[in-house]
Give the backbone structure.
Amino acid sequence: MNTVDPILQVTDLNKSFGPTRAVIDVSFELRPGESLGIVGESGSGKSTTARMLVGLERPDSGSVRIAGVDGARSGGRAARSRARAIQMIFQDPYQSFDPRVRVEDAIAEPLRLHTSMDRRARRGRVAELLDQVGLTERQGRALPRELSGGMRQRAAIARALGIEPSVLVLDEAVAALDVSIQAQVITLLNGIRRDTGVAFLFVSHDLGVIRYVTDRLVVMRHGRIVDGGATEATLAAPEHPYTRLLLDSVPEPGWDLDRLVRDRRELAAQDG
């Protein structure tokens, strides 16, 4: 039994957009250094959940406690404290960078906002971060458009790590990358977690990625958590038919598309 206090506690989180209930009574915990996956198809509520954790969406009800402090409804100084404790990395790193700002300056901006470092110290820290994610000083001086997608994602990771957050939320962070580049970035992320002790909340529809980078997972469907547990155990013996459907949706030798369609219809019928 893990007796370490959670760094992140999510309790009864709810969010609606008009008549659509996007997130319904979602609860989970994340401990220091742990990697938790949130799995589900598009529209399952996983990205909305992630956005509420970092303050990009405001929950209708429920709480998000980071290191014991409720961050879901906080503003001002408390919001800045939350921003330092939890950082997010998005699917498309290009959209998260100002195209007019050099990569090294973008990485330095959180340091300027959240630390007392002077310019010289910030430059030194940026150099360390570039090296940590496998980028050169020359690549740091580039504009975002001058880097490949994998390099931009490495830069986004460096920017998020600079202020030493306790939690990194990664929303489909490797989904837009070629498979070989995905493997490089995943290996980088696993090394960072091992070396720094930062906790990951990894949002993805890709069960292969989730299997490789997470210790535990929760499965979301129609805004609710329907399954979860230790990653290997849950994927080996899922309790909910939706989790089994997700596993059966991964193409492999002997893949039966007709059975998959039938199973999806049966699950929809059970929903009423």
Q: What stands out?
A: Residues 249 and 257 are 8 Å apart (CA to CA). Strands lie at 8-17, 20-30, 35-39, 61-66, 69-70, 86-89, 167-171, 199-204, 216-221, 224-230. The chain is about 40% helix and 25% strand.
